[in-house]
């Protein structure tokens, strides 16, 4: 059977579509472009390649029909309410997320969540296989879609498959806890090229393949032993932001005026500190508040001279760990203000909202000290956005060494957020360092982001995908659009027990309970 359906040379698959659904009071549906960095990056890439984007619309239920938006073909994937619970909130955000972030909170393991993860990954792969032109480039995003590369390869061995991990990839000792570890690795090994935020993440992945699957590895390459002779490359290509676009916004007179207005409305403090995070336990908000509270108690600083604005975007509110974090943060803020605030001058301004880009840019310009203190973070775009908005060379960035961003922005005021004394010192240094020195640091940080923007990231990623070690097989459908048979199980989790290579210590158990548990 041949089909005349239009197919695409570039297919991006991500958990979410790059648009948000808006319904007006008359029930009319409108799709609005979501402002994320990935969308901006892809916009420039897709302008030169006709592209499709496969993703979930964000609502439970049947997938809306595919549609075109701003030159992109959007292919929604439907998730039932149970799949939102089991695939998204469950396996993605309550199993994988904690394991991939150093188990800051314990991970939950449920076999029915895994079953939903397999099912949804397969559904994404089927949609990708239908949208991809012969020999297309397929770019799969993030931890929610780790099985999709192998599923896509089974359906379409003719396409080039890349995957990018936006979050850290854990050390093998943590990854090995996952009952489905072998199936996850084999899912990823369906790709030709795997991109990570840091070289350490790529190394963790390669080491997991060696120790848990017994595969041979050399440097950044993993050699498969499935008879294909394929090699998969894993390396770091750190993500960035749209520097030029954001800087232009931050230069706008209305944004500058708003920054002044924000400071005025806070009583023109001498030092305005700022935290901006999704309300997530990885972001180190509790540690930041503790350090700040101690600085106030020890009278190093105090309102009205110094104040802290903490913006905490609502996130994953149906997952228990997020609900209890929110309660704890809100209680802590209440206590600090109750004990250390003054009339008209609270010590902490806590805002649990999302804001438009203009308001974020104004906040960044208003802040003297930006506190980015995650316990673990794949990259952290807020750090890069802050320095981009400081075209005046004002401000100081306190940055955790456990963020991907620190590997690029290490001239910042570095902190280890677990070390509360050290964090307090970094905050005081950010306040007290002479302006000249802070300007010099800010100039260096800005130069780094300007030279390594998100457009460069996307170009580098696709060039690496094109140069991946192996040449794809011919299109099994002979270039036609025949529907492909649905695949019934997770990528086979057959584990080859093999000798370790490169002298890496003992394997962390070279067996697996395999897929389907
Ligand atoms: P996130 O964990 O979501 O991303 P981050 O990189 O900081 O973290 O990006 C958050 C984005 O949301 C930023 O662009 C920020 O400006 C925006 N934002 C935050 N609070 C907001 C608010 N109240 N209103 C409006 N916008 C707000 C994951 C990984 C990161 C990795 C990114 C990209 O966890 O480590 O950097 O993907 O790869």
From TrEMBL:
Region called Disordered, residue ranges: 468-517
CDD domains from the UniProt entry: GT20_TPS
InterPro entries in the record: Glyco_trans_20 (IPR001830)
Any Pfam family: Glyco_transf_20
SUPFAM superfamilies for the chain: UDP-Glycosyltransferase/glycogen phosphorylase
Domain of life of the source: Bacteria
Family: Belongs to the glycosyltransferase 20 family.
Name of the protein: Trehalose-6-phosphate synthase
């Amino acid at each position: 059977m041949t089909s005349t359906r239009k197919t695409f040379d570039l297919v991006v698959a991500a958990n979410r579509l790059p648009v948000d659904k808006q319904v007006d009071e008359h029930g009319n549906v409108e799709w609005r472009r979501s402002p994320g960095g990935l969308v901006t990056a892809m916009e420039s890439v897709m302008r030169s390649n006709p592209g499709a984007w496969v993703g979930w619309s964000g609502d439970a239920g049947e997938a809306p029909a595919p549609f075109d938006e701003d030159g992109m073909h959007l292919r929604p994937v439907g998730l039932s309410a149970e799949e939102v619970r089991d695939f998204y909130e469950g396996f993605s955000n309550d199993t994988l997320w904690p394991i991939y972030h150093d188990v800051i909170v314990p991970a939950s393991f449920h076999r029915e969540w895994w079953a939903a993860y397999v099912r949804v990954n397969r559904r994404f792969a089927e949609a990708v296989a239908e949208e991809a032109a012969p020999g297309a480039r397929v770019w799969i995003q993030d931890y929610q879609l780790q099985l999709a590369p192998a599923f896509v390869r089974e359906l379409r061995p003719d396409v080039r498959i890349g995957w990018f991990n936006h979050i850290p990839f854990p050390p093998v000792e943590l990854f090995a806890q996952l009952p489905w570890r072998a199936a996850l690795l084999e899912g990823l090994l369906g790709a030709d090229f795997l991109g990570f935020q840091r070289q350490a993440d790529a190394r963790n992945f390669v080491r997991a393949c060696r120790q848990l699957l017994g595969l041979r590895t050399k440097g950044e390459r993993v050699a498969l032993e499935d008879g294909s002779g394929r090699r998969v490359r894993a390396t770091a290509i750190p993500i960035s932001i749209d520097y030029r676009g954001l800087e232009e916004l931050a230069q706008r007179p209305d944004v500058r005026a708003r920054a002044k207005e924000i400071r005025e409305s806070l009583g023109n403090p001498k030092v305005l500190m700022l935290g901006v995070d999704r309300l997530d336990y990885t972001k180190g908000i509790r540690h930041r508040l503790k350090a700040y509270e101690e600085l106030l108690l020890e009278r190093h600083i105090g309102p009205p001279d110094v104040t802290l604005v903490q913006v905490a975007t609502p996130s994953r509110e149906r997952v228990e760990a997020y609900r209890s974090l929110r309660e704890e943060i809100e209680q802590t803020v209440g206590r600090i203000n109750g004990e250390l605030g003054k009339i008209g001058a609270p010590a902490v301004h806590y805002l649990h909202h999302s804001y438009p880009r203009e308001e974020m840019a104004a906040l960044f310009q208003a802040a003297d000290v930006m506190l980015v203190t995650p316990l673990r973070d794949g990259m952290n775009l807020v750090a890069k956005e802050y320095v981009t908005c400081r075209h005046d060379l004002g401000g100081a960035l306190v940055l955790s060494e456990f963020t991907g961003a620190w590997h690029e922005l290490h001239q910042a005021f570095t902190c280890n957020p677990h070390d509360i004394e050290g964090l307090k010192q970094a905050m005081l240094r950010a306040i007290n360092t002479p302006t000249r020195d802070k300007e010099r640091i800010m100039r260096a940080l800005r130069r780094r982001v300007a030279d390594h923007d998100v457009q460069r990231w996307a170009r580098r990623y696709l060039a690496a995908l094109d140069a991946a070690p192996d040449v794809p097989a011919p299109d099994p459908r002979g270039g036609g659009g025949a529907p492909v048979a649905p695949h019934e199980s997770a990528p086979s989790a057959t584990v080859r027990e093999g000798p370790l290579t490169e002298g890496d210590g003992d394997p962390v158990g070279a067996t697996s309970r395999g897929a389907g548990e």
